[in-house]
Every structure is written in structure tokens, then in C-alpha cells.
Specification:
alpha+beta, five-stranded antiparallel beta sheet, disordered C terminus, 13 strands, 30 helices
Length: 798
């Protein structure tokens, strides 16, 4: 386990102490598979060495069982109850018991007795809930240190002479140190990954302590040679060491808690500083600022919850963090007191302390009032903590005042001062945002309005009254579209609305918007002309949308030629129906089919309108052809054929009589030209034929082939398509035939009325058709004002 980089400077620089700090929390960890395997292997190897060593002594030598029990018990106490933490493990005064065990009993059985003492001590810890049962079996490898001394003393038997005896003891101690070093290094490296250099430093400290306690064990052992009861002299020494071990562990635990507290405080302060940086970055957003300030205050003061309220001249907002009812009650009480008194307040409720500071400030919008409150359990807030929070609140108030001032300036920059509607900048900002989501299936409608009669009103009643009218009309327009969109004033007497085009109430909304810009009286009448455009179906940029809407608006101002075109078309269709009813049905089917094919060529709304009108009226010239020729069952004569071919020219002349239908007349004239130049009346070839005429020629041919005629029966859909493919490149444009066949494959095989297709009709096209209907209807005449209202020079609001 490695320390967090943020705490490197707070931790010990000594490797042994550093290892102790880093391994402290993992000492009580559960046994994992890796440790179980390593310690299991070490235990098996130890028993494989200790059992053969002990068997000869167990068989041939008498052993005092009471002495064995006392020594094993004392070893259990010394090795498992008296633990001095060091490095990744513990130092225990085991040599104080191990030396008497080696000298008072056959030394060859000492390793097994040592392992037994370790197991007994661990079972005692298991009994009080301080260790897992698995630890009892894994305690056996900790007896490796006893194997070296046992081997040396067994081989040396009974040494003679003081110098020889001291040398044997030294060799025994050295052998124990070497085996302990090898065992501990291999095991710690395999389990915890502790480096051998650090482990060597830890073992050297262990050797030093063992060297200090071993003489005590030697003295007790020599005393017990004459009286075994002298072994009990070890108990007072173990008692003292037990108290010292517990005191050291408690001090280390306390130091670890303080180290954790330092780490927590440092992390908290770093987070608080980061929050302040975020607050500075979020200086243009009051909601983000209040959230960051509240969370930063909670983290800086180590609180359990907090609340920030803000109101007065600003819209009332309350942000609260705290998931217990007690904390919430304390927050509310302190916050209400601080906001009412405009002074800091600290109080206690049910063991929870709350600190609240007033959060009011002056701005161009007026005086804002509020409170910043934090709360925590059991601990009162100190003076220095209150000072920190006061500094934070002061900076937050300054930032909030700047935000409010900026928002006011931004609102003024985006708002028309007279009507309080959004201005052109606001429209640009809104449409940039909405354009991201606008699509052919989710279009917007932009309607541009220009007041009629306002200049006259302004000249008659003066600019003050004119401004009052503009303000009143702007308010009415905003109210009329509030549930469907937004209203704007672009300048002068120009208004604009941006609507959602998905509503089934579009017709009434458009009518309401136009009606909102009307006022009339005895001596004046103000109304509006308007032009509408679909976004992005007809325009993908605001500039083009405004240009297109402006063109349509001024077209209505100049006499509404588009309505005249519709009326002319309706009259001509009625004439065709009166002449020959089948002509209207045939032309209607061809028009619907042409619209579908035209869409595949990417035609815009204007081009589709011209194509559909041309398809509806492509046979209008046949009203001049005698019925006897049109209904003739047999083949036509040369003269009759030439007479029929004049119907395109006759249709052109009829349509040219209406200026608004002249683009349609060009298409009608070329509707019977052939791709290879064999058509009439001009013998045009290829791309010289208008695209609309090429589409009409193919759709007209398909409709004629699949309809019963007086001179032949209708073909099947498949046969008609096959005939069209054969004539592609000769009579028809190959690309048009390909688009027509693809349209059949993608939808229905014949020109079915699209109004019956429901969802198959794209929403944008449906809205475009709907808008044309809406814009073609005259608005109802407004009721005049009472004479008394007009005579006062101030129009009555409607």
C-alpha cells in the first residue's frame, strides 16, 4: 500500500516507520487467498522440519508435562498478547520464554512447543473476537525463529566451560536470527510485496529487542534448574511488557487518527479552494455560484449540511443540502434569524449546531436578501471558522452582485426597451439555440409582421401615443403566442414570432398573432401584413429565413398575388371539371404523384408549389379541344392529332393571363416534350426541358396507362412501370423514371391522395400546406372603437 502523494510531507521519512503507517489499516484485514497459500506452504515446511527433530526426544527422554504447560502458556501470552508494532508486523518478547524452554526441556521439542504456544495464543484472540479462526493455523509459520536455536543446542548437546557455553548460546541466537530473516523476508515479500532492504531494517530492530530480552530468559532458566517454580518470575515481566505494548499501540492508533484527520482536512481545504475557483469561473451564473458557495462552505467547515436562501429583489430561490430532519430544523432556525436580523447567528437544536450569515447585497435590481447557513452535529463552530465563512460569504456576495449586474446589462442588450420584448439580438440567440434541435420532423415557424397604418396613426396622434400603441401591441402579441413560442420586436413597426410547428392549433395561433397586432377606431386603423417561413424546411439560416419571410410579407402588402394565383387556379380547375370531369381527377392524381417525385429531387417549397400547380393545370388547354376528339374511341387522324398537340400552347396562353401563374405556364408548355427531341411544341431535348415538365410527362404517362380510357383498358402497375423503363432515355428522362420507380417501391404503387396517408406525409410538408391555407384566409375585420375612445387620442386596448 502506498501513501497518497498529497500526504507525503506529513508522513515519516524513516522507511520502517513509513511501513508501519502505511500497513496500520491492513493489519486487521481478513485472510485472503494469497496469504492463505503462502502461510500454508510455510507451515507445512516448518512442521516437516520440526516433527522429525522432536521425535527422538519425545521417545527417549522424560518430560515434565506441568512445566511444558506452563512454558507453552507463557509463550502464548508473550507472543500473542504482548505485541509491539513495527514495520508491517510486530515485535514480541518471545525469547524471554523461548530461552527457558530450550534450556529446561529437550531443545529439539522447543519448535513444536513454540508452534503450540502460537496456536493457543491465537485461539485466545479468536475467543475474544480479535482474530479469525484461520489465523490459528496460519500462526504456525511464526515459529520458524525457534528452529535455529533448537538445531544448534541439539547438535552441541551439553557444552563444557563458560566460554564454550557462551559461544554455543551466541551461535544459537545467530542461527535463530538467520532463519527468522529468511522466513520473514520471503513471506512478507510474497504476501505484502515488502522490499528486502526495508525488511532487513525491520528485522535488525527485532534482533536488537530479542538480544535485550534473551538474557532475562537465561537468568530465569538458570534459576529454574534447581526450582522449576522460578519460571513464574517471567509473569511480572510479561505484565509490565503487556502494559507497555498496549500503551504503544494506543499511541500509534491515536497518531494514525490524527494523520487521517490531517489528510481529511487537507483534502477538504483543497476541495474548498477548488470550489472557489469554480465559483470564479461560474461568475456569470447565479445558480452555479450559489451551489458552489454552499458546497464549498460545507466542505471548508466540515459541516453535515447547509442551506442558502436568496430573495428580495431577485426571484426567491432556496438551495439545501442535508438529509436529516434535525439538521434541516437547525438550518431553518438559524437562517431565518440571520436573514431577519441581518446579523450572524449561531444556535443549537437537538445536538446540532448551525451557523448562519446574512447573504444580502445591493444591485441595480434592488436589495437582495438571504442567508448562508451550515450545520454539524455535536461541535460548535469556532471563531476562526466563522471568520473563514464570513470571508467566503463576502466574496460570494460581491460575485453575486456582479452576476446580477451583468444579467441586467445582458437583458437590456437583448430586450426592446419600449415593448419589453426580445430584440433582434435575442432572436438571433434563441434561433441559434433552437436551430440545433430543429429538423424536418420538428420544424419551427418564423412569422415576420409589419404594421399597416401605423405611420398614419403616428403622424395623427403623435409619437407618445404611437409608442403607447407599440407597447400595447407588443404585449398582446407576446400573450397570444406565449404557450407556443416567443415574440420579438425587430425595430420600428416590425415584429416577429418564433413558434413550434408541431401544434395542431397552428392555424389559431397564427390568426391570434396577427389579430393581436390590430387596433382600430373612428379615425384610425392599424393592422399587420405578415410572411411565414418554415425552419429548416425552407431556410437553414436566420438571414435567409428573414429574407424569405420579408419577401412574402411585402408580397401580401403589394396585393397578395399568391392568393390571386390560388383563386385563378381554382377557377381554371372548375372550368376543366365543367368541360370534362375526368380531366380534374386525372390532373389531381398526376399532381400528387409529381409532388412525391419532386421531393426526391430536393425541390424546395416554392418549386414544389409551381410543380403541383403545373401538374394540376397541364391539361387546361384541352378545354379548347372538342369533346368528339377527346372522347374518340378509334385512332385520331393527322389533322386531329395536330389539333390536340395545340393544347399545350393554348394552356400557356390561358395561364399567362394571370401574372402569378406565368412560371407555371412555362412548365405546362413543355409538358409534352420528349427526352430525345421528338415531342411538341418546340422539340426540346434532354436538360433543355424544364425539370418540372419532365416529371409531369412521366407521371402523366403512368397515370394514363393505369387508367381506363374509351379507346383501351388500363394496364397493370407492373406493365406500366416496364413500359416507362423501356422509354427511359427516349421519351422520358432516365433519372425521373428512376426516381418515380423508387417512389413506387418506397410507398404506394399509384397516386393516392396524400391527405389520406396520415403519418406518411412529412410534418414539414404538412405544416407548409397548412400555412399556405392559413395565409390565404382573410382575417376578420376588427370592430371599431367607440368615438369617445378615439377622440381622446388613446386607442382602447383589446
Amino acid at each position: 500500500m502506498t501513501a497518497e502523494p498529497v500526504m507525503d510531507d506529513a508522513r515519516s521519512s524513516d522507511p520502517v516507520e513509513r511501513l508501519l503507517e502505511e500497513s496500520w489499516k491492513t493489519r486487521s484485514r481478513r485472510v485472503d487467498a494469497r496469504e492463505l497459500i503462502v502461510e500454508g506452504v510455510a507451515a507445512v515446511l516448518f512442521l516437516a522440519c520440526a516433527i522429525p527433530l522432536a521425535l527422538p526426544a519425545l521417545i527417549s527422554q522424560p518430560i515434565d508435562p506441568l512445566l511444558v504447560v506452563v512454558l507453552v502458556g507463557m509463550y502464548a501470552l508473550a507472543s500473542r498478547m504482548i505485541e509491539f508494532p513495527i514495520g508491517a508486523g510486530y515485535v514480541v518478547p518471545s525469547y524471554m520464554v523461548l530461552v527457558p524452554m530450550l534450556l529446561l526441556l529437550p531443545p529439539s521439542i522447543a519448535p513444536l512447543l513454540t508452534a503450540a504456544g502460537l496456536v493457543v495464543g491465537t485461539l485466545a484472540r479468536v475467543a475474544v473476537g480479535r482474530a479469525e479462526v484461520k489465523r490459528a493455523l496460519l500462526a504456525i509459520p511464526d515459529a520458524w525463529h525457534s528452529l535455529g536455536p533448537a538445531l544448534v543446542l541439539t547438535v552441541a548437546a551439553k557444552p563444557h566451560g563458560v566460554l564454550n557455553q557462551a559461544a554455543v548460546y551466541a551461535m544459537a541466537f545467530g542461527a535463530g536470527c538467520v532463519i527468522d530473516l529468511i522466513s520473514a523476508t520471503v513471506r512478507e515479500s510474497a504476501i505484502l510485496g515488502v522490499g528486502s532492504r526495508v525488511q532487513m531494517r525491520v528485522i535488525s530492530v527485532v534482533w536488537l529487542i530479542d538480544a535485550c530480552v534473551a538474557p532475562l530468559g537465561l537468568l530465569v532458566a538458570h534459576a529454574a534448574r534447581t526450582d522449576p517454580r522460578q519460571v513464574l518470575l517471567l509473569l511480572p515481566l510479561n505484565g509490565v511488557l503487556l502494559l507497555l505494548a498496549r500503551d504503544r499501540s494506543a499511541r500509534i492508533e491515536q497518531a494514525q487518527r490524527r494523520l487521517d484527520l490531517v489528510a481529511r482536512e487537507r483534502t477538504r481545504l483543497q476541495t474548498a479552494v477548488r470550489r472557489l475557483g469554480e465559483a470564479l469561473a461560474a461568475k456569470l451564473d447565479i445558480e452555479a455560484l450559489t451551489d458552489i458557495v454552499l458546497r464549498g462552505s460545507i466542505e471548508a467547515l466540515d459541516a453535515d449540511g447547509g442551506c442558502l436562501t436568496l430573495g428580495g429583489a431577485l426571484p426567491r430561490r432556496e438551495l439545501a443540502i442535508g438529509d436529516t430532519a434535525v439538521v434541516k430544523r437547525a438550518l431553518q432556525a438559524a437562517g431565518a434569524s440571520a436573514e431577519a436580523s441581518d446579523r450572524p447567528c449561531q444556535l443549537e437544536r437537538d445536538g446540532v449546531w448551525a451557523l448562519a450569515l446574512p447573504f444580502g447585497f445591493d444591485s441595480d435590481a434592488g436589495r437582495a436578501r438571504g442567508a448562508l447557513t451550515v450545520a454539524r452535529g455535536q461541535r460548535q463552530f469556532r471563531d476562526d471558522e466563522e471568520a473563514v465563512m464570513c470571508g467566503l460569504a463576502d466574496r460570494a456576495r460581491e460575485a453575486a452582485a456582479d452576476i446580477v449586474a451583468h444579467h441586467l446589462l445582458r437583458e437590456q442588450a437583448l430586450t426592446d426597451a419600449l415593448t419589453r420584448l426580445g430584440n433582434r439580438r435575442k432572436l438571433i440567440a434563441d434561433i441559434d439555440e433552437l436551430m440545433i434541435e430543429a429538423s424536418a420532423t420538428n420544424p419551427l415557424v418564423l412569422i415576420l409582421f409589419d404594421l399597416n397604418g401605423f405611420k398614419s396613426y403616428n403622424d395623427t396622434f403623435g409619437h407618445v401615443a404611437g409608442d403607447a400603441v407599440l407597447a400595447r401591441l407588443g404585449g398582446k402579441l407576446a400573450a397570444a403566442v406565449a404557450s407556443h413560442g416567443t415574440a420579438y420586436r425587430l425595430g420600428g413597426d416590425e415584429f416577429c414570432v418564433l413558434l413550434s410547428a408541431k401544434s395542431a392549433e397552428l392555424e389559431s395561433v397564427v390568426a391570434s398573432a396577427a389579430g393581436a397586432l390590430e387596433e382600430s377606431g373612428e379615425n384610425f386603423e392599424v393592422g399587420a401584413s405578415y410572411g411565414a417561413v418554415l425552419i429548416p424546411h425552407e431556410a437553414t439560416t436566420l438571414d435567409y429565413a428573414l429574407q424569405l419571410a420579408d419577401e412574402r410579407m411585402y408580397a401580401r402588402k403589394r396585393g397578395r398575388p399568391s392568393i390571386a394565383a390560388d383563386q385563378t387556379r381554382d377557377v381554371l380547375i372548375r372550368i376543366m371539371q365543367a368541360k370534362q370531369p375526368s380531366l380534374e381527377d386525372h390532373s389531381g392524381e398526376v399532381a400528387l404523384l409529381c409532388r412525391r417525385v419532386g421531393r426526391r429531387f430536393g425541390m424546395n417549397t416554392e418549386e414544389l408549389d409551381e410543380l403541383v400547380r403545373a401538374a394540376e393545370l397541364h391539361d387546361v388547354g384541352k378545354v379548347g379541344i372538342p369533346d368528339a376528339i377527346l372522347d374518340k374511341a378509334g385512332a385520331l387522324s393527322t389533322e386531329e392529332r395536330e389539333f390536340v398537340r395545340q393544347h399545350t400552347l393554348l394552356g400557356e396562353r390561358i395561364l399567362n393571363a394571370a401574372p402569378a401563374l406565368r412560371p407555371v405556364a412555362v412548365i405546362v408548355r413543355a409538358s409534352h416534350e420528349r427526352w430525345d427531341g421528338g415531342g411538341y411544341p418546340d422539340g426540346l431535348t434532354g436538360d433543355r426541358i424544364p425539370l418540372g415538365a419532365r416529371i409531369i410527362a412521366a407521371c402523366d404517362a403512368y397515370e394514363a396507362m393505369t387508367t381506363d380510357r374509351c379507346y383501351r383498358a388500363a394496364m397493370s402497375h407492373e406493365a406500366a412501370c416496364e413500359e416507362l423503363r423501356r422509354e427511359a432515355g427516349r421519351q422520358f428522362d432516365p433519372e425521373v423514371i428512376e426516381a418515380l420507380v423508387e417512389e413506387f417501391s418506397a410507398s404506394q404503387p399509384s397516386g393516392v391522395d396524400e391527405s389520406e396517408r396520415g403519418d406518411a406525409l412529412p410534418i414539414a410538408d404538412e405544416v407548409a400546406a397548412y400555412l399556405r391555407t392559413v395565409l390565404s384566409r382573410p382575417l376578420p375585420a376588427p370592430a371599431p372603437l367607440a368615438a369617445s375612445d378615439a377622440s381622446a387620442g388613446v386607442p382602447r386596448a383589446r
